[in-house]
Amino acid sequence: MSNNYFEVIRSGINTTFQDKGRPNLYHLGIPFSGAMDNRNYLLVNKLVANDLNNPVLEFAYQGPHLKYIGEKISFAITGDVSFKIKSKTSEIDGNCYETYEINDGDEIDIFSTNKSVYGYLSLSGKFDVTYQWGSCSTNTKSKIGSNNGKKLQNQQIIEISKINKNFNKKRINYVNTKIEKIRVIKGTNFDYFSEIAINNFFKKEFKVSKLSDRMGMRLEGTQLENIYNSNIKSEGLIKGVIQVTGDGNPIIMLSDHGTIGGYPKIAVTISADYDRLVQLPSGSKIKFQQIELSDAETLFKMYEMDTQNLLNQI
């Protein structure tokens, strides 16, 4: 066993290893997976001077409580997260988007995300994880990826394969903003829905259901009338596509979504809004706004530029 490792005192609700995901495998029925909130994933790796595709711990709602064993190392947490750093002589409240040093015997206790869903932890080194199809990302539904395709478990040991000892204290001022409207473009089955249903889709509020996870976000609200067929021949799906199930409720496909589906697709979430979409906890109210494809492309370029500017500040 490595001389440097974490002991998992409490695993948290849904803590997994993630990186950028697995591209170009949809034809094999394998979804992209990867970190849900890409910007926060990139920022946490940059704060500890890692390669931007390094494995991180992604946690939802309640995070893990970890005890560190080994030589001095630094770590950072991103998202809107409450956590403490505990040593033998002190206990401090941690700040997101700031690096900290921990020593042998210190603990990181991640209590919760605040009015959001996902947070990220990275350290100045590399978790010793296995790779499958070029990625360590854990997909618990398919049981693929690192940690045998499973969430972290209590009393588990997380080994660290290497440590970057060139520690420099870093911090960035970043605020996770809320999103009022989810911008979308027309889906391939947009015309399957009645004029009333389309009007309701863009004018009515929907509520994020408790039945949401890394696979999909179920919404509750006005049922959308399908005037053609509520079940169609299965077609390929992409991240962010919005299907309407047989009961008339929308479901947004997220990072671990199935690669084919037989429900009509009314719209697709634009990529620039995806990070903030996935951070909406159950009970959140959302509305949709239609835009054109050309506008979606422009907004994504702006999103990438903003992300790169943030990375350059670190």
How is the secondary structure organized here?
Elements: E1 5-10, E2 16-18, H1 38-47, E3 56-60, E4 65-69, E5 73-78, E6 81-86, E7 91-93, E8 100-102, E9 107-113, E10 118-123, E11 125-127, E12 157-163, E13 181-186, H2 195-203, E14 206-208, E15 216-221, E16 235-236, E17 241-244, E18 250-253, E19 260-261, E20 265-269, H3 274-278, E21 285-290, H4 293-313
Parallel strand pairs: 13-21
Antiparallel strand pairs: 1-4, 1-12, 2-3, 3-10, 4-9, 5-8, 5-10, 6-7, 6-9, 11-12, 13-20, 14-15, 14-21, 15-18, 16-19, 17-18, 17-20
Strand content: 25-35%
How many domain units? Answer: 2
Spans of 5+ residues with little confidence (pLDDT < 50)?
none
End-to-end C-alpha gap: 33 Å
Sum up the overall morphology in one term. Answer: elongated
Question: Mind summarizing the main beta sheet?
Answer: 7 strands, antiparallel
User: Could you give the order of strands across the largest sheet?
Assistant: 7-6-9-4-1-12-11
Whole-angstrom Rg: 20 Å
Helix content: 10-25%
User: How confident overall, as mean pLDDT?
Assistant: 95
What string, H for helix and E for strand, traces the elements in order? EEHEEEEEEEEEEEHEEEEEEEHEH
The helix/strand class is: alpha+beta
Overall number of strands: 21
Number of helices: 4
